[in-house]
Amino acid sequence: MMPSVKAFAYLLILALFWNCKSKQQQLEGIQPSGDIIATSDFPKTVTPKKSERPKGMPAIPDTTFVDLKNYSTDFVYDIKYATTDNFLKSQVYECPECFLRLKTVQALMQANQDFLKLGFRIKIFDCYRPLDIQKKMWKIVSNPDYVANPAKGSIHNRGGAVDITLVDSAGKELDMGTAFDHFGPEAAVDYVNLSEEVKKNRKLLQTVMSANGFTVLRSEWWHFNLNGASNYKISNEKWDCR
Ligand SMILES: [Zn+2]
Which residues of the chain have a pLDDT value below 70? Predict the structure, then answer.
C-alpha cells in the first residue's frame, strides 16, 4: 500500500513541476516588441481615424517617427533619392523608406482613402529626410532654389512634408505637366500655360490634400506640408535598412 501512495505523490509532484516548466517556456517564447519605429508588429492595412487608434497599435505621441509601410499597403513608392534618378544624379538614401511623424501618416492615409474612392492612389517620391542627408544634398547642389539650406532645414527634415503624385488603378501616373523635381516655372501650381487635363489633375491633387490638412508649396506641385508641421523639431533620426 505505502509504496503505491509514495509513487502517486511522486508522479503528482512531477506533473506539477512539468506544467510550471512548460508555462515558463511559453512565456520565454514571447518577445518584447522592441523599438517602436522598427517593429514589424504594427497592423499593415489599418486606416485609423484622427481620434482613434487601431486595435493592437501602441499608444504613442503623434509626433513619433513611424514607417508608413507599417500602417498601410495602399501607397505606391518610388523613393527617388534612394536611386540616381533624381536631379542630383546621386543616390543619397541608402534604402527606400518612408518615415514621417505619426500625425503626417494619419493625414496622408486619410487623403489616400479619399483618392482611392475616386479610383486613384498616392505615389510617394520623398518623405522625412534626416538632416545629414539634407547636408549631403546641399554639398552636391548649394543653391537654395533647388535644395533647402540645412542651416535652416526644411519641413522634410521635420517629418511633416511629402513629395507625391497620383497614379490610376493601372498604376499609371497622372499627367501633372512636369516630372518630379523639375525646376522651372512650369512646376509652379499657378502656372497657366498647361493643358486642361494637367490643370484638372493638379487641382484634384491639391483639393484632396488640402481637405486633409496639407498645404501645397506654390513652386512645386508635388510638395505638400502638413499644416502646423513647421513647429516640429528638425531631426537627424535615421532608419535601419532592412
Ligand atoms: Zn519636397
Answer: 1-58
The residue behind cell 535644395 is 147
pLDDT of residue 1: 45
State residue 55's pLDDT score: 53
Q: If DSSP codes are grouped into helix, strand and coil, which group holds residue 107? A: helix
Q: Is 156 annotated as a binding residue?
A: yes
Q: Phi, psi at residue 8, to the nearest 5°?
A: -65, -45
pLDDT digits (tens, 9 = 90+) for 175-212: 999 999 998 999 999 999 999 999 999 999 999 999 99
H/E stretch holding 126? strand 121-126
Please tell me the distance from the alpha carbon of residue 22 to that of residue 31, in angstroms, as a whole number: 16
| All domains of the chain in start order, with CATH | 65-231 (3.30.1380.10)
Residue 65's SS3 state is strand
Q: Is residue 220 flagged as an active site residue?
A: yes
Q: Which of 28, 52, 94, 220 is catalytic?
A: 220
Strand order of the β-sheet with 161-167 is 76-77, 121-126, 161-167, 220-226, 214-217
Output the CA–CA distances (angstroms, integers) from residue 79 to 45, 126, 160, 232, in the order listed: 20, 6, 16, 23
Query: Separation of 29 CA from ligand 1 center, angstroms?
Result: 44
pLDDT in tens, 133-150: 999 999 999 999 889 999
Distance 161 CA to ligand 1 centre (A): 6
Residue 72 and residue 121: Cα distance in Å, rounded? 12
- CA of residue 83 to ligand 1 center, whole Å: 16
What is the distance between the alpha carbons of residues 214 and 90, in angstroms, rounded to a whole number? 29
